[in-house]
Amino acid sequence: MKPTELAHLIQAQIVRPGDIALDATAGNGHDTLFLAGLVGEGGRVFAFDVQEAARAQTMARLGGAGLAERVTFCLQNHADLAAALPADPPLRAAMFNLGYLPGSDKAVATRPGDTLAAIRAALALLDKQRLRHGRRLSGTRAAPRKPPPSAP
Predict the structure, then answer these.
(1) Are 43 and 18 in contact (CB under 8 A)?
(2) What is the pTM of this model?
(3) Which stretches of 66-111 are DSSP H helices?
(4) Residue 138 forms beta bridges with which residues?
(5) What percent of the chain clears pLDDT 90, i.e. is strictly above it?
(6) Which among 16, 70, 77, 112 is placed 20 to 30 Å from 150, CA to CA?
(7) Is the preceding omega at residue 89 within 30 degrees of 0, hence cis?
(8) Mean pLDDT of the chain
(9) Which of 125, 68, 139, 136 has the alpha carbon at shortest distance from 92?
(10) DSSP percent split of the chain into helix, strand, coil, nearest 5
């Protein structure tokens, strides 16, 4: 199984219609499209990339699938995602698929410090309450979390 397939399998266990999701590295839009399908009509995906070519390719892919209206594309560094995403409702899931945009200028790359800042910001925005009481991941299987024993 490819890493992206595993990531999609995990996200499919977590993201529900109406959720807010993040694709911090839109690239060609494959993960953005996947998340847009999961969040449904009432949800929203925020997609980030610094390259206009990535925005154009992602939006064309979404348009072809009829899902462009579910996505807000931010043509900016993902290090600045905290300022672009709403604090409420909280973020349900985040994807970071690092690498170069195929066929693009290899001089345009995300710096490690920017990605670390973006990961920290995404973690701060995640819906920790739902993650804690929703599902717990164990490998690639999601298992329902048992409720705590009630006090006598």
Answers:
(1) yes
(2) 0.83
(3) 81-84
(4) 141
(5) 67
(6) 16
(7) yes
(8) 86
(9) 125
(10) 45, 20, 40
